[in-house]
Amino acid sequence: MTQAFDAAIAAFAPRLPLAVALSGGADSSALLLACARRFPGQVQALHVHHGLQAAGDDFERHCRALCDRLRVPLAVRHVDARPAPGQSPEDAARQARYRSLAALAHVDTGPAAIKSVAIAQHAEDQAETVLLALSRGAGVAGLAAMPMHWQRAGLDWHRPLLRVACAEVRAWLQAQGEGWVEDPTNQDQRYTRNRIRARLLPAWAETFPHFRDALARSAAHAAQADELLRELAQADLAAVGTPPRIDALRALSHARQANVLRHWLKTCHGTTPSAAQLAELQSQLAACTTRGHRIRIKVGQGLVVREGVLLGCYNSAVLPPGPAGAMPALRHDAAPPVGGSGRQSAGGAPLARGKGCKPE
């Protein structure tokens, strides 16, 4: 399954024009150089300055110099990727990066508008992602790790080097006489991914020399299982309704009930329950045999409550601001639903209800 660098580039057939996410590191520098040669005049580079370290200015200078030599247009966006309270630095930087790449790709809306974005993650990145998911007790969606191709924000996104070993990428770039910049934070073992890279991967390579292929196969199996579960959840949600009917949910097997609840909460309300929250919700559904049984459970970023014969979910995070910049809210004096409670948070503030479900 592992590919040579040249074979991966030869197999890469994106819709053009193409943008390459360029950090200045070896992987993205190699990908930009290879794509500029393969698709002359159809490639541009996108660089996101995260504003997190002084070395970020060096990354940008390297990117500008490389693009000047290759005569490839470069678009740069400066962002503040500092994490919010409770958010991991890696997650904050990743979210800021993908938002910025999409925004940069959409700057030109004419005939030269970007159709595809390429990202230079490689086989070790995929292995690290699988191991991270395992360490967190992830389900099949997490174990599926990173896809080679997906669509979002009207763009095709690609990881053409996902089956290429890191050493292969660097050897190819060195053979072209090109340099790169090293991110000093990659050596900081306070970050879990860096500890996996520095400690676990060498041990895996020594014990299981073909670990990249094995973990990639596991990720592919998980991705297929996740697709099947998603298709089943879509069919079940159509059957139980949106919002779901409690009696229809109770008629499902425990596993199908969990699957459709996760799908409903994620696709309709933008929230993901923890394993404990989902187990509690299912326990309450199992006990929900009378009109007077209340359900009011914190799930992800919102609340799931019983509303007569239905389940309701309230999550203000998925609603757009109102005319005055405030979130729309339900009335404090509204009568509680049958078997439920008033639509208020623990502090008494009104909660806004998520909009209808949108298909994935």
UniProtKB/TrEMBL annotation:
Domain tRNA(Ile)-lysidine synthase substrate-binding, first and last residues per copy: 246-306
Location relative to the cell: Cytoplasm
Organism: Oryzisolibacter propanilivorax
Superkingdom assignment: Bacteria
Similarity-based family: Belongs to the tRNA(Ile)-lysidine synthase family.
UniProt keywords, alphabetically: ATP-binding, Cytoplasm, Ligase, Nucleotide-binding, tRNA processing
Chief localisation class: cytoplasm
Protein's name in the database: tRNA(Ile)-lysidine synthase
Function: Ligates lysine onto the cytidine present at position 34 of the AUA codon-specific tRNA(Ile) that contains the anticodon CAU, in an ATP-dependent manner. Cytidine is converted to lysidine, thus changing the amino acid specificity of the tRNA from methionine to isoleucine.
InterPro entries reported for this sequence: Rossmann-like_a/b/a_fold, TilS/TtcA_N, tRNA_Ile_lys_synt, tRNA_Ile_lys_synt_N, tRNA_Ile_lys_synt_subst-bd
Domain description: The N-terminal region contains the highly conserved SGGXDS motif, predicted to be a P-loop motif involved in ATP binding.
Reactions performed catalytically: cytidine(34) in tRNA(Ile2) + L-lysine + ATP = lysidine(34) in tRNA(Ile2) + AMP + diphosphate + H(+)
Single GO molecular function: tRNA(Ile)-lysidine synthase activity
EC numbers on record: 6.3.4.19
Domain tRNA(Ile)-lysidine/2-thiocytidine synthase N-terminal: 19-198
The keyword Oxidoreductase appears for this protein: no
Pfam families xrefs: ATP_bind_3, TilS
UniProt-annotated binding residues for ATP: S23, G24, G25, A26, D27, S28
Biological process (GO), any one: tRNA modification
GO cellular component term of the entry, any: cytoplasm
Region Disordered, residue ranges: 329-360
